[in-house]
Amino acid sequence: MDPRLTKLVESLELSKVLMIKICQAFQRHLSQGLLIHKNGGIPGEDVSICSLKMLDSCITNIPSGKETGVCYGLDFGGSNFRAVKAVLCGKGRIEIFQNSASLKESFQGHCPEGLVHAEVPGTHLFDRFSLQLKDLIDHREDTPMECSMNAENNPAVVPLGFTFSFPCLQESLNAARLITWTKEIETGRATECKVEGKDVAKMLQEAFLRHSIPARVFAVINDTVGTLISCAYQKSEDDPDCLIGLILGTGSNVCYYEPMAQEFNYKGNVINLEYGSFFDPILPRNEVDIELDRSSSNPGGQSFEKLVSGRYIGELVQKYCMKLDDPAVLDLLETYILDTKDAAALATLETSNPTSSNIVNTMKRILPSSTVNILKALSLAIFNRSADLISCSLAATVLRIITYSPEISRLSIGVDGSLILKNEFYFERVTCGISSLIESAGKKCDVKLIPTDDGSGKGAALVAFVASRS
């Protein structure tokens, strides 16, 4: 291997000692965040003490997998949204029906940006949500009659969970005030009917009333919390309790079940860490990471996410490759932008196979073996670093749980997101890393990662169902 390439690859490797230190730093930030919240402060404001936001989900009850009935969810996290109907069949089985739509459809003949435009009143956005749900309720003939009518032969109020993936102040399980729009959505900003600063659950409930829709918002959640809840319901009876949720795709986040939540003045037991913002001097950020951060849309923010998430891995491979100054690599990168899917294909290439060593299918071009070897080595190193850092954060979270609940000897982590679910080598490395770090801490806990789909849809509906029965 070229000495320059060897040096770059080695700069991305995390020693066991460093991983232990990162795990300890994460535990320290987590513990400090709990104390800050207990004393009425806001975790994440002073990143030198705690860089985790540690938001209250207000969720107190986790499903068992035995619940049966019908519930609904609305999932809104960008320019598309969907309505979801979940039929809970018990024994962890869920039947899902859904419809989706784009918010970028033309609004009243103008505003080509559609309902995400600043000149569109907030009520119009929530009216659109409610009508999408109404269509699902009206056109699903499989709803059991006992769920569709009450004793007075009137439409029964259906429980609904609202996945709203924007920064909110969670005031209660069914009250969340939008702090600010993100993702280029500006609905209501140039009108008297704004959304920012308003309780989005209340706005949705008012839209249901305007359109005579028999639904009640029981919960507002984010997709990571939904992943934990969805896993808790769907896991096998033989699997341990699901106490952690992980999203790891384009972005990344973790939530967990805090055994002592009430002692730290949380209303719920599930805490949303928003750990993409985690920062500590021990993090292995080097010259390339700093360059990527400076050129990003939020310099200085989401430091951990920029090291681990799918949104940045392709860009990191590209930037590291350019450091080598290899003519063939530079020629490739002049005309081709690597993405994370490319990097995953490169990381898992069998270079002993002449066909695969010369052809990278995702790029649809023939490459010299030497170029492929460079791309493979750097892609694998960056994926491995990401997996090791994820292991540190998850091991720290597990250690928090079992330190204060020593009776817990096994637990599950519900995982969703393309980065971890579509790359088996990555999934296995994270699993092994967690076990190794827990053992190094002198603790014992069997941890199982369970692939969990659609936390934002199923999870929202489940939270609403459980809340409606509490």
UniProtKB/TrEMBL annotation:
It catalyses: D-fructose + ATP = D-fructose 6-phosphate + ADP + H(+); a D-hexose + ATP = a D-hexose 6-phosphate + ADP + H(+). One of its GO terms (biological process) is glucose metabolic process. GO terms for cellular component: cytosol; mitochondrion. The keyword Kinase applies. It comes from the Eukaryota. Residues 5-233 form the Hexokinase N-terminal domain. One of its GO terms (molecular function) is glucokinase activity. Residues 244-465 form the Hexokinase C-terminal domain. Pathway: Carbohydrate degradation; glycolysis; D-glyceraldehyde 3-phosphate and glycerone phosphate from D-glucose: step 1/4; Carbohydrate metabolism; hexose metabolism. Pfam families: Hexokinase_1, Hexokinase_2. Its EC number is 2.7.1.-. Keywords: ATP-binding, Glycolysis, Kinase, Nucleotide-binding, Transferase. CDD domains: ASKHA_NBD_HK. InterPro entries: ATPase_NBD (IPR043129), Hexokinase (IPR001312), Hexokinase_C (IPR022673), Hexokinase_N (IPR022672). Belongs to the hexokinase family. This is Phosphotransferase. It comes from Nephromyces sp. MMRI.
